[in-house]
Design goal:
By secondary structure, the chain is of the alpha+beta class. Helix content is about 50%, strand content about 10%. It has two domains: about 150 residues, Uridine Diphospho-n-acetylenolpyruvylglucosamine Reductase, domain 2 (2-Layer Sandwich), CATH 3.30.43.20; about 300 residues, Cytochrome p450 (Orthogonal Bundle). It has 17 helices and 13 strands. The protein has a six-stranded mixed sheet. Strands 5-13-10 form a three-stranded antiparallel sheet. The longest helix is centred in the middle third of the chain and has 31 residues. The radius of gyration is 23 Å and the shape is globular. The structure holds protoporphyrin IX containing FE. Protoporphyrin IX containing FE (HEM) binds next to helix 6, helix 12 and helix 16.
Length: about 475
């Protein structure tokens, strides 16, 4: 690592290790993270020392400081080898967050290696993002038909009017089906992957081994697609960088699967919530343009990546009221920055409201969500939310918004359930081969339909228990 001829922290300035740190992930944080951010801001200013599952880290709270950390890659590095506590062997070997950070992929690379990995993903996603290309057209149609199929299953299982959890019965299965389709998973791998991603996303005692199995499954998928290329993201990634090993591409797919499932799923749920708790006029007048604005508002109020991944200081630097030492770990909080932004926007000194497009829901700077991935994520969210309101003549929350349970981790904040009372509009078809007849055949002569049937069977087990 290069030496920097810059200022070093004054000897009398407190180091992260010397400060009394408060645990961030408390029951109060689960219920009301905004109150915790506010208290930390009052106590420490724009940057606060906190403990993440026992390990000290700087939490960056204010919009200006968060943007600075996200944008300045020469100062704020992603490569975990910059982390001093790790290099000095001070992290507990069983620290729950370490396994994820040790998976070396695009997010945790710097400079040329990082730019090359992003370029490969961008070129591989290109065909799917372009609405007029056959792959783009087919993916759009498939997302819509999967959504229709899930609403059809709901109608078949629970009737044309009743109660549903739009998380377990719609959003999560939809995203898993889209991932399986986009990645080109054959049937056997699809079922296995669905189960393990589900366990991994929900956390719990089996999450570690499930992560290992999901990584191994992605590696096997790459080997399969290297031998039998198809019209899928895995095959296009191999085309973009044929020198990549099965293991490396497996790690990339693993990370993309997390974004495609957990993060995109949370964005769908947060947007649905924004619409459901909006007034009747907002709901009636949902048009494509207004849906885009609703997504921005949901990202501002509840960014699915609440606290972004760690950055490591390349040298001693002043941030907020502290000197951050070279190798210290910093977590920029989009959720806290949005709180700060909204406070600035409502200040009488500013005199204008903040544009919802100023949100950091996609991140910012060199590690922000790649444009092709944003297009894809945006298309999925728009389609998934749009289809719900096409099919449901009535949908209302069965819990007051402030009593909805949230999953609150060091990175993600997402709804655990989204319970609604619904009435369908009457045009919903039960699941069958119809909606997906137009999809392209896959390998082994089995076709997309058999792939979807395997998935639907697995999802049925997950959603309704073995029948
Ligand atoms: C609505 C959906 C999505 C949201 C809200 C979202 C949000 C984000 C955010 C906040 C980051 C930056 C994280 C950080 O700096 O720590 C990010 C990075 C990333 N996202 Fe997305 N994302 C979405 C969908 C997707 C999809 C569908 C894919 C891929 C298929 C994807 C792939 C990536 C990748 C590869 C990165 C890492 C980029 C880098 O480190 O250079 N995202 N995303």
């Amino acid at each position: 690592m290069e030496a920097h001829p810059y200022a070093t922290a004054p000897a009398d300035s407190p180091s992260l290790e010397s400060l009394p740190v408060q645990p961030l992930l408390t029951s109060e944080f689960d219920v009301d993270p905004g109150a915790v951010y506010q208290r930390l801001r009052r106590q420490y200013g724009p940057v606060a020392p906190v403990a993440l599952m026992g390990v000290p880290a700087w939490l960056v709270l204010d919009y200006r400081e968060v943007l600075e950390v996200l944008r300045n890659e020469s100062l704020w590095r992603r490569d975990i080898r910059y982390w001093r506590a790790r290099a000095e062997g001070r992290l507990p070997y069983d620290w729950p967050l370490l396994a994820g950070y040790e998976v070396r992929q695009t997010m945790f690379m710097d400079e040329d290696e990082h730019r090359a990995a992003r370029a490969s993903l961008h070129s591989a996603l290109g065909p799917f993002q372009e609405a007029r290309s056959p792959q783009g057209w087919e993916l759009r149609a498939t997302v819509a038909s999967f959504a229709d199929e899930l609403v059809g299953m709901l109608a078949a299982e629970s009737g044309a009017a009743g109660f549903a959890d739009l998380g377990a019965q719609y959003t999560r299965p939809l995203l898993l089906m889209v991932t399986t389709k986009l990645f080109g998973c054959p049937v056997e791998l699809g079922d296995e992957l669905v189960m393990d991603l589900w366990r991994m996303l929900d956390g719990g005692p089996d999450a570690g081994p499930a992560t290992g199995r999901a990584l191994a499954a992605m590696t096997r998928l790459v080997a399969h697609r290297r031998a039998r290329p198809g019209d899928d993201l895995t095959s296009y990634m191999l085309l973009a960088d044929p020198g990549m090993s099965d293991e490396q591409l497996g790690r990339e797919l693993f990370m993309n699967a997390v974004y495609l499932n957990d993060i995109t799923g949370n964005m769908v749920m947060n947007t649905l919530l924004e619409v459901l708790r909006g007034n009747a006029t907002v709901r009636r007048s949902l048009s494509a343009g207004q849906l885009g604005e609703t997504i921005n508002r949901a990202a501002l109020v509840n960014p699915p990546v609440a606290n972004m991944c760690f950055r490591f200081a390349a040298r001693d630097v002043r941030l907020g009221n502290f000197w951050v030492r070279a190798g210290d770990v910093v977590s920029p909080s989009a959720a806290a920055a949005h709180q700060d932004l909204l406070a600035i926007g409502s200040s009488p000194m500013v005199g204008s409201t903040v544009s919802t497009r100023a949100h950091l829901g996609w991140g910012a700077g060199p590690h922000g969500c790649p444009s092709a991935a944003r297009e894809l994520g945006g298309m999925i969210v728009t389609t998934a939310v749009g289809r719900v309101f096409d099919h449901f003549s009535k949908a209302e929350l069965t819990l007051p918004p402030d009593q909805l349970p949230w999953r609150s981790g060091p990175v993600v904040r997402g709804l655990k359930v989204l319970p609604v009372r619904y009435e369908l509009s009457g045009r919903v078809r039960p699941p069958g081969p119809g909606p997906r007849e137009h999809t392209a055949p896959t390998d082994n002569g089995r076709g997309a339909d058999s792939q979807a049937k395997g998935l639907l069977a697995a999802l049925r087990r997950l959603m309704f228990g073995a029948k």
